[in-house]
Amino acid sequence: MQAAVLAGPGQVRLEDVARPEPGPGQLRIRLEGCGVCASNLTPWAGPEWMQFPTPPGDLGHEGWGIVDALGEGVTGFSVGDRVAALSYKSYAEYDLAEQDNVVRLPDSLAGQPFPGEPLGCAMNIFRRAGIEAGQTVAIIGIGFLGAILTRLAADAGARVIAISRRPFSLDLARRMGAAEVIPMEDHHAIIEQVKTLTGGQFCDRVIEAVGKQWPLDLAGELTRERGRLIVAGYHQDGPRQVNMWLWNWRGIDVINAHERDPKVYMAGIREAVEAVASGRLDPSGLYTHRFPLSRLDEALNATRDRPDGFLKALVTFP
């Protein structure tokens, strides 16, 4: 099979490698595609801790495709099933997954991309946020994750204030149900605008979905007394500082919404399958760019540079 290998900072090459064989309890999946995650960008930049070359297919963890082979003891799946999986070497034509980390996709999703991990991640973040009807919810950063959370929060009856840098993202937030949109330009101006919109109370829930210091600072400022700040951004480029005085004074709850328990991950993916299959959630318009595996470098660069109109890249296979 062909698999992508990161050869160095900003360098990727395709290699012909042996097709993996499923062990006991594993499935082999012939991949149709894999989403490109922003968490790839720090390894792509080549920090000191990164080791090159990477194992074939490494960093790809948003794959979906067709079950191609079953390992010993696998039950509940058949060759030919279309599935989404929680696996970790999906920048390749084939990947292996534990049977507990695979979910079958219904026929109603035939032909549709389904990067299960980020969709499941959004469902889990939404659950942990505890959003209810009548609340005011600020979402900082309207990328793929922020857009889905906007839709889920609006559908739950919350008033959503979307804050993002790009006009494209703010237009998208309105389409996803945001009641108000604010350009992410001036820190103090944003605070004053949200204060005005909320009658001086600020927000019941604030979701930080960027993964940088300034949005985290801003999130604390926008959270009301005894409100909840949900960290959904992936902070992987170094330590962060927080305004502990403000957090103490307002008595806010802080939720780090990143899951590491595979069972919780899979619960979110199953919930996402149900939401998309039922029509409650339609992410199809959020997959804005598609690349073959041979152009993975372009997909990663687009994810980093976010050209106008970009939201989510998929690597797809013929």
Automatic annotation (TrEMBL):
SUPFAM superfamilies: GroES-like, NAD(P)-binding Rossmann-fold domains. InterPro entries: ADH-like_C (IPR013149), ADH-like_N (IPR013154), ADH_Zn_CS (IPR002328), ER (IPR020843), GroES-like_sf (IPR011032), NAD(P)-bd_dom_sf (IPR036291), Zn_alcohol_dh (IPR050129). Residues 8-315 form the Enoyl reductase (ER) domain. PROSITE patterns: ADH_ZINC. Its cofactor is Zn(2+). Pfam families: ADH_N, ADH_zinc_N. Keywords: Metal-binding, Oxidoreductase, Zinc. Belongs to the zinc-containing alcohol dehydrogenase family. PANTHER family: L-THREONINE 3-DEHYDROGENASE. This is Zinc-binding dehydrogenase.
